[in-house]
Amino acid sequence: MSPVPTVRLRPATDDDRDRVLRWRNHEVVRQASFTTHVIAPDEHAAWWSRVAADDARHLHIACADGEPVGVVLFDDAGGGADWSFYLDVDGLEARRALLPTWIATEIATLDHAFGPAGYAELRGEALAKNSAVIKLHERFGFTVTGEYRRDVDGEPETVVRYALTAAAYREEEPA
Ligand SMILES: CC(C)(COP(=O)(O)OP(=O)(O)OC[C@H]1O[C@@H](n2cnc3c(N)ncnc32)[C@H](O)[C@@H]1OP(=O)(O)O)[C@@H](O)C(=O)NCCC(=O)NCCS
């Protein structure tokens, strides 16, 4: 396995649009999402424009040692943010770097959320069957705050909600 890289977040630009569609359409990411169809380029372009025009949504590209490796989306609400992310599964698997990059992206996300972005809380959701994601979040201090059932392409699925406050994050950080 590769060593844990240094990941930094930067705001997405239109040059990132095609790579983000490619990453989002990977089978692994679709199966982790709440809609699993292959997203067409025009559907993606419309979504991209909506996100760019929305002051509450902040789309970032995670870069590992300068290379784009994933997407991190913050959606401001109530002094905190709803957060979702996915990675370049193909590219990172080819480099045997998926897990270390995922860990580094989570660290960069928390540093950004509770640093420059100034959020009081970060919240996320994942399918219950995606237990590896939930366990990793728990290792970073997230706690499960609830769950609900929703339809995912015609199938009922359990979705787990998790959250971490800035105060709890600072308490856990090494001095
Ligand atoms: C996987 C994950 C990113 C899915 O994100 P999401 O925003 O909830 O995605 P959804 O599938 O619910 O999409 C929400 C809406 O945006 C649309 N959308 C999302 N990304 C889009 C894109 N790139 N282009 C077009 N539409 C898009 C969806 O079609 C959906 O539209 P609808 O509300 O009209 O149905 C999110 O659940 C998450 O962060 N999970 C935990 C982390 C994880 O498992 N990551 C993947 C591992 S690599």
Automatic annotation (TrEMBL):
<dbReference type="Pfam" id="PF13302">
    <property type="entry name" value="Acetyltransf_3"/>
</dbReference>
<dbReference type="InterPro" id="IPR016181">
    <property type="entry name" value="Acyl_CoA_acyltransferase"/>
</dbReference>
<feature type="domain" description="N-acetyltransferase">
    <location>
        <begin position="7"/>
        <end position="167"/>
    </location>
</feature>
<dbReference type="InterPro" id="IPR000182">
    <property type="entry name" value="GNAT_dom"/>
</dbReference>
<dbReference type="GO" id="GO:0016747">
    <property type="term" value="F:acyltransferase activity, transferring groups other than amino-acyl groups"/>
</dbReference>
<protein>
    <submittedName>
        <fullName>RimJ/RimL family protein N-acetyltransferase</fullName>
    </submittedName>
</protein>
